[in-house]
Design brief:
single chain; 130 residues; mainly alpha; three-stranded mixed sheet; 4 helices; 3 strands; 32% helix; elongated
Length: 130
């Protein structure tokens, strides 16, 4: 649970230190603050128990919106969706993971036979480790 969410309002009553910035301005700032606070409360407090947890999914979505594949959880079929990765290389990734444990950094995928620097450069922005 998130506590102490602070979204500063700009009103005549509030004296801000010099150089500080206000989140909301204008005559409707209180209504806007309440709308934002309500939206954040709904997101934080309302959970959904009828689907897989986000941590159970092999894909993640970074801030830039590009889908990344968690190479520690991906199946052979998932790995084959990466450019230049076929069934043989996907099986080698799974085998390496089973024999050596999870990858700690994405660069470690170059330890897998069939994935060198050139192949890594093709997939580096499409893979992740968790």
């Amino acid at each position: 649970m998130v506590s102490n969410i602070v979204l500063p309002l700009c009103t005549k009553d509030v004296h801000w230190p010099s150089g500080s910035r206000c989140f909301l301005r204008g005559r409707h700032s209180k209504q806007a603050f309440l709308s934002v606070f309500l939206a954040l409360s709904i997101v934080v407090l309302c959970g959904c128990d009828d689907g897989p947890a986000l941590t159970d999914m092999p894909h993640s979505f970074p801030a830039n919106g590009v889908e990344r594949l968690d190479i520690n959880r991906a199946s052979e079929q998932d790995l084959e969706t990466l450019p230049g990765i076929g069934p043989k290389t996907a099986a080698a990734v799974i085998r390496h993971r089973e024999e050596n444990g999870p990858f700690l950094r994405i660069e470690e995928i170059m330890l897998v036979e069939g994935i060198g620097e050139k192949q890594f450069q093709k997939i580096r922005y499409q893979i992740a480790v968790k």
